[in-house]
Design brief:
The chain has 236 residues and is an alpha+beta fold. The protein is built from seven helices and twelve strands. Strands 7-4-3-8-9 form a five-stranded mixed β-sheet, with helices on one face. A three-stranded antiparallel β-sheet has the order 10-12-11, with no helix packed on it. It has a two-stranded antiparallel sheet with strand order 1-2. Bound molecules: benzoic acid.
């Protein structure tokens, strides 16, 4: 029996992704060990055979190859059983046409979590929202198994999948170039470089002597082309 503390604990950014073994629509998985060396998005949805979740799965399925090109695998979860998952995904493929998407096949694993073992480990059940359904949680986990970003949405709000993709690319760009990314950053936009000391002296930064554009000593950007970013992030 898990204690209340364990049930309500939530992993945080920088933590190692909690380990688990689970049954999925694509066979058993050992997480995160099976994903070592890849980025992975572990996400939850409230329930099979519900409309917002259906729209989300169709969108994720339509973008699976795009995420794969950015070295990122997808793993879904809900507090439903395997046969429910299989029947729902078959129904989506055979019966649902939505926003130009049809015949959508979900090829990534969908975890059965009737026991809530995984959902509880990841803080996906947020009882004041719903005690028996996971919220729409998204964990971005890096190739070393470290949680790098987390986004939660309530039951009623479908996720923005362009934003999920943007996060995957931005995290990889930040690692590859040792930079940060400003508001609404997309590949090709200027990136943020570190504080004075680590990136030139305050004087050189303000006098434009370094390869950077300083609006103030604490706010400096530099250019990295879209091609440079994508050459690091996308698979050849
Ligand atoms: C939905 O996916 O449509 C949904 C699921 C659970 C609660 C509300 C909406």
């Amino acid at each position: 029996m898990e204690s209340q503390q364990e049930i309500t604990s939530m992993p945080r950014i920088g933590d190692k992704a909690p380990e688990f073994q689970a049954v999925t629509t694509q066979g058993d998985i050992n997480f995160p060990a099976d994903y070592k060396g890849d980025w992975v998005i572990l996400f939850s949805h409230p329930a099979d055979f519900t409309p917002v979740c259906t729209s989300e799965f169709m969108t994720f399925a339509s973008m699976e190859d795009k995420f794969a090109e950015a070295n990122c695998k997808l793993v879904g979860l809900s507090i439903d059983g395997l046969y429910s998952h299989i029947a729902w995904l078959r129904s989506i493929k055979e019966k649902i046409e939505y926003k130009g998407m049809k015949n959508m096949e979900v090829k990534f694993p969908l975890i059965e979590d009737i026991t809530m073992n995984v959902a509880n480990k990841y803080g996906m059940v947020q009882p004041n929202e719903d005690t028996t359904k996971a919220v729409r949680a998204v964990f971005f986990i890096d190739p070393k198994g470290i949680i790098r970003a987390i986004i939660y949405y309530p039951l009623s709000l479908g996720r923005n999948f362009d934003e999920l993709y943007r996060v995957v690319v931005a995290l990889q760009a930040a690692d590859a170039f040792d930079v940060a990314t400003p508001a609404d950053w997309r590949p090709g936009d200027d990136v943020i470089i570190g504080p004075a000391g680590s990136c030139g002296t305050a004087e050189n930064r303000m006098e434009g002597k370094e390869d950077m554009d300083c609006k103030e000593w604490y706010f400096c950007t530099k250019k990295i082309s879209k091609e440079e970013v994508l050459s690091k992030v996308l698979k050849k």
